[in-house]
Each structure stands twice: as structure tokens, then as C-alpha cells.
Amino acid sequence: MRAVLAAPPPTLLVIAKEPVPGRVKTRLTPPWTPEQAAALAEAALADTLHTLSAVPAGRRVVVLDGRPGDWLPPGWEVVPQDGGGLDARLADAFAHAERLAPDAPALLVGMDTPHLRADTLSAPLSAVERAGVDAWYGPATDGGFWALGLARPSAGLARHLLLGVPMSTGETGPALLERLSATGLTVRHLPPMTDVDTHQDVRLAAAEAPAGRFAACLRSLTPAPEATA
């Protein structure tokens, strides 16, 4: 009898920047200080990693600009971000996944999703539900994207999909989705989510996950800016 090979568990990638005051969440200053903005960034990263630790995976990798800190949970590997623009660094993250687990699908998430739930990804990435899926795409409400996954990650495919896509604009997500479609990939759409970039985003994300570290960090900050600031 021929053996049936089990589908390899996915590689989870988080692209992140060390939460150093003045280098992260600069759009939150003002109303918050650089130190407060960095505290929110660290809490968002910690919550994101905590949630993804509960998603079944073969490897968990932080693709990091900077040095790891106390926010890094057990079971996570760290690889450095390569140089270049964000489009090139995202593509290089998939190159790391190909090197670490060449036969496994890979899904990349940003560090700004403290309200992410594990079940949002557990089912779509399960062996049963990913049959016939070539890519996963998670749109962000600001026009970007919060997740991108490839069933057969490779440096070449990632560069083809990502290089030249305008980053951090309202057209980022649609441009990426157009490339996914033009490449002929079967795409599974994940639910839209808010990326934490603005003061309003902070409050929305904290309200969706009130028990998390991010929400607790927000409650601790003083003074508390008005929601309309």
C-alpha cells in the first residue's frame, strides 16, 4: 500500500520592527509621546505573536528589523530583515520561508494586528481547507493588506507579486490582489481587518480585543487623547 504523505504544517511569518521610541508608530505622535507610541507598538507585536502561537504551525518566524526583546515568546525564530523598500523586505520574508521549510505553505502577517483571533487563520490554513488554494489574502480597511500567504512560497514568486507594488497607500491591497489574479493563483480571501496606524485605529483594535496587552497598554496611557483627535 502506498503511504499517504501528510500535508506539512504552515510556516507563520511576522514582519516586525523593534519597538524603539521615534522609530515606530510615528503617526501616533502626537497625541502620544514617542515612548507611549513605542509601548503601543510593543503591545501590538506581543499580542500578535501570542495569538499566532495558538495557530497550528511547523515554524514560527519573526522577520525583524532590530533586536528581539522580552516581547518574543518561546517557540519563535528570528531572522533579520534584508535591505530595500518594504516591498523587497516582504518578498525576502518568503525567501526565508522557502529556505527554512521549502515544502510548507507560508503566511505573512504584520505586527499591527493585536485584535487578530487564532481561529481567523487556523481553519483557512488547515490541511483540509487549503486544498486547491494557491494564496491567502487579507485586506486591511485602509486599503492595504494585513496578511499574505503562498501555498508554494518561493523567492521568485514573492518578488513577482510584491516588487513595485506601492506600499502604505490606499492602492496597496488592490494592486497586490490584481497581481495575484493576473498570476493565475487561486486566492482565498481572509476577513478584512484594521491595521493599527492612526489614533482611531488604536481605539478600534483595543475595543475588539479588550482583554489583550494592547488594550491594557492603551488604558494605562495618560493623558488619554480624545477619539476625534
- What radius of gyration results from the CA coordinates? 17 Å
* Poorly predicted runs of 5 or more residues: none
Note the beta-strand portion: 15-25%
Main sheet: strands, sense, barrel: 7 strands, mixed
In one word, what is the shape?
Answer: globular
Physical arrangement of strands within the biggest beta sheet: 3-2-1-4-6-5-7
Report the total helices.
7
Determine the structural class based on helices, strands and strand pairing: alpha/beta
Q: In brief, what are we looking at here?
A:
With 229 residues, the protein is an alpha/beta fold. It has seven helices and seven strands; from the N terminus they run βαββαβαββααβαα. The protein has helices spanning 34-52, 86-100, 119-122, 155-162, 172-182, 199-208, 213-220, and strands spanning 11-17, 59-65, 77-80, 106-110, 135-139, 145-150, 187-189.
How would you describe this structure to a colleague?
33% of the residues lie in helices and 16% in strands. It is α/β, with parallel strands linked by helices and 229 residues long. It is globular and about 50 Å long.
Layout: helices, strands, pairs:
Elements (H helix, E strand, L loop, with lengths): L10 E7 L16 H19 L6 E7 L11 E4 L5 H15 L5 E5 L8 H4 L12 E5 L5 E6 L4 H8 L9 H11 L4 E3 L9 H10 L4 H8 L9
Parallel strand pairs: 1-2, 1-4, 2-3, 5-7
Antiparallel strand pairs: 4-6, 5-6
